[in-house]
Amino acid sequence: MKNGLTMTAVFEAESANYGEGMGNITTLKKLNRGAGDGYTYISRQALRYSLIQQLEWDNTPVEKSGSGDKTVVQFQPSASIADYPEIDFFGYMKTEKKKNAATRSAVCRLSNAISLEPYTSDLDFLTNMGLARRIDADNAIAQSEIHKSFYAYSITIDLDRVGEDGEVSIPDSEKAQRTETLLRGFEFLYRDIKGRRENLSPLFVIGGLYERKNPYFENRIQLNKGNLNTRMLLDAAEPVKTESKVGYISGTFANDKEIKDSFQPVTVAEFFNWLTGQVRERFA
User: Fold this and answer.
1) For the whole model, what pTM was predicted?
2) Could you give the 3-state DSSP secondary structure of residue 126?
């Protein structure tokens, strides 16, 4: 039984997740590698936030729990996965007085989307001149870190846990429909930030349904001067090459011909049509 769905996707975006600012500088979320290069990233929480909003799954009822400085916002204990796909795929923690906490670990696991090209300290200089001139006021000045790059992230779904939570079990047809809706969300994902709408739809994607629930292609995407490292991906895919497929938008990477010769990719749209078809067969 193929119970593990995983895919790793690459998209291109600009400055799509900011962290805590310093003074008048807005800083991007970043991490550093051993060689000294810094890379920006879009957190898994930010990806989930955009996805849930666009799927209109952000209607799971919540409530405040606790008191004083220990107050937290959580999903209502009465909320069930039968009614709310958000907590079906991304889990929950529910606490009630004099009861043990009820938890559900995530069925759909997301990684951070990490840039494939290093950040080189580019800054955008901002003022409010347009408004200030209207009343002859001084300009407010700010700086914002900017970075345009390719990003890679992975998702992994435990298909045998979709729609199953204790005594709750939804029909297989609903499990297939929910999973397909989720995948279509990733296919057309975008992110609204600072007056921009960034397109997070995949330019390259690899994955499939497997017996093992392993993110086979996570951390296997490398880019060097616009060239995708095909050798690494081919080696990673070797144990599951017959179950895997690649979707690719022509012209994305410099070694376009090498990618096509190595993977015989389909279009990204064809990849998601194939993957959702695999899901329907799994739950048939």
Assistant:
1) 0.94
2) strand
